[in-house]
Amino acid sequence: MDLASFIRDVPDFPKPGILFKDITPLLAHPPAFRESIHRLVEHFRDRPVDAVAAAEARGFLFAAPMAYLLERPLIPLRKPGKLPYRTFNFAYELEYGQAELQVHIDSIKPHARILLVDDVLATGGTMHAGCRLVEKAGGQVLACAFLLELGFLKGRERLRDYEVFSLIRYD
Amino acid sequence: MDLASFIRDVPDFPKPGILFKDITPLLAHPPAFRESIHRLVEHFRDRPVDAVAAAEARGFLFAAPMAYLLERPLIPLRKPGKLPYRTFNFAYELEYGQAELQVHIDSIKPHARILLVDDVLATGGTMHAGCRLVEKAGGQVLACAFLLELGFLKGRERLRDYEVFSLIRYD
C-alpha cells in the first residue's frame, strides 16, 4: 500500500509559502491507518522497547495503538498545565518564542528504553525536546519513529544523537 | 480487573479544592489500558459505528486504538489553528471564556453515525460541543464513550440528548 497517497498537500498552512502535509485522509482510511501502525510496530517488534512516549496531540494518534499492540506503557509528554502530578520539565526554543514539555516524575523508570513517536518529522524541535526530557527523567531514547519525514527540513540532523525511523519520506 | 485502581487522585489540580482523576497510571499499565480499550470496543462492537471521533488531546489516546480495532475512520476534533484544510467550527462556553472545536469539512459523511470518545466525562462541555460539531458537519451522534465519569458533575444531564457510556463511575 502506498501510504503517501493518503497524505494531502494543503498549500499556505500554517502560513503563506508552507505546503502542509495533512494526515487526516490517512486517519480516515482504516486500512491505511492500520498498515501505518503495523509497519511502525513491526519495525520495533524485536527491539527492547520498555515504553512508548509521545508529545501531544497528533503523536498520541500513533503512539496509543502502538503501545496497545506492543503491550508497553504509554507515556504522554504534555504542554505545561496539563499533567496533574509532579513533573520533569524541558523548555526549548521554537521559531517564535519558547515552548515546554512535561512528563510525570514517576512515568519513566531508571534507564528505561523509550520509543518516541510522532506523526511528522519537520525541523525536529519538538522531538528533540521530547528526547531530552526522557533523558532528564532518567530514561534512554531507544529511537524516534514517525509516520512521515520532511527530509528537506533536516530534522535528522537535529536528531543526530538518536535513531530515527520514518515510513514516508519527502526529500 | 478493577480499572478504578489505576486512576490516581491528585488533590488541588488544576486549582485548590479540585480532586483531579489522573489516568496516567492506567496508561502506564498495559493490561489495564488494554482492558479499557477492549471493554469500550466490545460495548460498541455490534452497533452501527461509521466512524470514531475525539477531541484533542487525551481523547486521542482512547479513540485511536478503538478506531484501529473497530476498523473505522478516526476523526480528530481540534482546537482552532490545528487543522489545515477547510473546517466546520463550533464555539462554546467554558467556565472561563470561550473555546472552539473544528473538524475538516470532508471528515464526516452525510448521516454518518459517529462514536465520540474521551477519557473523562466531567461537566460535559467539551463533549457536548463535539456532538454539536458532528451534527453541524452532517453526521449523527451514535453515542459518547468515556473511560471514566464524574457523576457528581452531572455531565449526563448536559448530554441528555445523546447516549452516554462510561467504564468507571464516581458518584
Structure explained in plain terms:
The structure is a homodimer of 171-residue chains. The first copy, chain A, is of the alpha/beta class. Chain A has one domain (48-170): 3-Layer(aba) Sandwich (Rossmann fold), CATH 3.40.50. Chain A has 5 helices and 9 strands; from the N terminus they run ββααβαββββαβαβ. A 5-stranded parallel β-sheet of chain A has the order 4-3-7-8-9, with helices on both faces. A two-stranded antiparallel sheet of chain A has the order 1-2. In chain A, strands 5-6 form a two-stranded antiparallel sheet. In chain A, strand 8 (140-150), helix 5 and strand 9 form a beta-alpha-beta unit. The mean pLDDT of chain A is 97. The interface between A and B is large, with 39 and 39 residues.
Which properties best describe this structure?
homodimer, alpha/beta, 5 helices, Rossmann fold
Low-confidence stretches of chain A: none
Structural class of the helix and strand makeup of chain A? alpha/beta
Mean pLDDT of chain A: 97
Number of strands of chain A: 9
Q: What is the CATH class designation of chain A?
A: Alpha Beta
- Name the assembly state: homodimer
Largest contact between chains: A-B, 39 and 39 residues
Spatial ordering of strands, largest sheet of chain A: 4-3-7-8-9
CATH architecture title of chain A: 3-Layer(aba) Sandwich
The gyration radius over C-alpha positions of chain A equals 16 Å
In percent, how much strand structure appears in the residues of chain A?
25-35%
CATH topology heading of chain A: Rossmann fold
N-to-C order of helices and strands of chain A: EEHHEHEEEEHEHE
